[in-house]
């Protein structure tokens, strides 16, 4: 496996408040890596820092052999990173089809029809809702659309920020199964930020635990699921 994403000593600030305190993380090509932690630990901040907004004040982010630490967001995205952000952020007034067109805007349009069929096969509900406005979809359908829109850009690295947030257990299981299939069949590399530690660690090849802006533990998904500190902090009563 080759190194696709390397985060070294990254420190991110909001004004004078330090949100990330020297983060070291590696994601190898073909892996699913998850970052778990409580609300406010800095998970989404790391995801946004990788995408260049906010930029890291210290440290380095290397993606596919290139230093992207100081690059603007649009340049980073052009290099094959796609994000399904926290809160989904779909285009509410646009149809499902139009949202997917927006996702494909940076790619060669000759692949559009094939890519559309792939995301419709992955999320059949979206095919049924193809002409429906994004804002009228259920929460689960909006999450599927956010992931599908990201996939339409043909990413090498898919960043998923809290894909299970606020969704019913059955919908969550379907979304995690889709992520597993993307990785297994397409070999897609996934970096997943999640509060639902049980589902995330079951899915991931490797994981990191973030506490107050600092990585406190790392290991395989199985190793972290078995650790007493992880069970006590994130899994007690949390298998939903």
TrEMBL record:
GO biological process: L-amino acid transport
GO molecular function annotations of the record: ATP binding; ATP hydrolysis activity; branched-chain amino acid transmembrane transporter activity
Pfam families on file: ABC_tran
SMART domains, sorted: AAA
Keywords: Amino-acid transport, ATP-binding, Nucleotide-binding, Transport
Transferase in keyword set: no
TM spans (from-to): none
Signal peptide residue numbers: none
Domain ABC transporter: 5-237
Top-level taxon of origin: Bacteria
PANTHER family cross-referenced by the UniProt entry: HIGH-AFFINITY BRANCHED-CHAIN AMINO ACID TRANSPORT ATP-BINDING PROTEIN LIVF
Family that this chain belongs to: Belongs to the ABC transporter superfamily.
Name by which UniProt lists this protein: ABC transporter ATP-binding protein
Organism: Phreatobacter aquaticus
